[in-house]
Amino acid sequence: MSEPSDSYTRHAAHFERVYDLDDPSPYFATLRRADYRMPVALAGALKAIHRPLSAARGAGETLRVLDFACGYGAIGALLRHDVSISALYAHYAARQWQPADGRRYWPKDIAFFAARRAQGVAFDIGGIDIAGNALAYASALGFVDRAFPENLVDDAPSDGLARFLDGVHLVVESGALGVLLPAAFARVLDCAGGERPPWFLYSPRPDVNWTALETLWAARGYRTASFLGAPVRYRKPLEAQEGADMLRRSRAFGKSDDAIMQGGYFLVDMTLARPEADIDNPAIAQLRGRMVEESSE
Ligand SMILES: C[S@@+](CC[C@H](N)C(=O)[O-])C[C@H]1O[C@@H](n2cnc3c(N)ncnc32)[C@H](O)[C@@H]1O
């Protein structure tokens, strides 16, 4: 458990205040300062994974994806629009939203993204988050197709979510608290149907103890692999002390500083968990090759 004086805990409490506002701009302003990169990495991974996962599952054109702890829907925003992450940050930085402004910028945002809608591979995205306002925004903007304001960690899923999970192809996660994942992913697996269980693509921060999740994978017959074969830049610390705390926590798990932070960015090794039966279908090297192809298209 973290001591209350830990700057990481204080930072997290501050950061959480921007999770569920009527407007996403304070959230994105915070992340812009840290140059948070994960939603763009996940959006690229989703494009790369579409064809091989469809083939492995015998799915049609549309893959069903659960975005766990989707917040304001950053992954869907980048996946579905010709907008870079810096353009997204710049868009939200162009206003000085105050709580009294409520949802007044939503129509402007809808027009901004509608003008940049991209053609591309098809996903049916279900977003789940405990932050109802953030989820409502993600849904209004079309960043998710279905919104589930639920807490899978503490509660069983609603009937609607259970139906969505029965047949879900892929679960993605970026930026969620690591400690939530084992319980939430176990519930997903309980609902997902045993015959064609989903793949999971997640962003395991190095300062978290992942033993419970590894135990879950072993118990459910899943194997994990580094999706890219190398870590990606996650974000910069928001303050120097957060960086120092992150290094200290990660060292406790035997990780070298170089593996945790480079060039001022925290690193995360995006991880793919697949049922054992899918492990060569296709091999991870082929998936990495698809990622390279996607990024050069
Ligand atoms: C750092 S934000 C990440 C949001 C989004 N994935 C992104 O990358 O922009 C963390 C999110 O976790 C959500 N969250 C916290 N506890 C949760 C829970 N038990 N179930 C689902 N979401 C949760 C918060 O509401 C918040 O939206």
Report on this model:
The chain has helices spanning 7-16, 25-34, 38-57, 74-79, 85-93, 106-114, 132-140, 159-165, 181-191, 211-219, 240-251, 257-260, 284-296; strands spanning 62-68, 122-128, 146-148, 170-173, 199-202, 222-226, 232-235, 261-262, 265-268, 271-275. The protein is an alpha/beta fold and 297 residues long. Strands 3-2-1-4-5-10-6 form a 7-stranded mixed β-sheet, sandwiched between helices. The model is unreliable at 1-5 (pLDDT under 50). It binds S-adenosylmethionine.
Task: Describe this structure in a few short sentences.
The chain has 297 residues and is an alpha/beta fold. Helix content is 43%, strand content 15%. The chain has a seven-stranded mixed sheet with strand order 3-2-1-4-5-10-6, with helices on both faces. Strands 7-9-8 form a three-stranded antiparallel sheet.
Write the layout of secondary structure elements.
Layout: H1 7-16, H2 25-34, H3 38-57, E1 62-68, H4 74-79, H5 85-93, H6 106-114, E2 122-128, H7 132-140, E3 146-148, H8 159-165, E4 170-173, H9 181-191, E5 199-202, H10 211-219, E6 222-226, E7 232-235, H11 240-251, H12 257-260, E8 261-262, E9 265-268, E10 271-275, H13 284-296
Parallel strand pairs: 1-2, 1-4, 2-3, 4-5
Antiparallel strand pairs: 5-10, 6-10, 7-9, 8-9
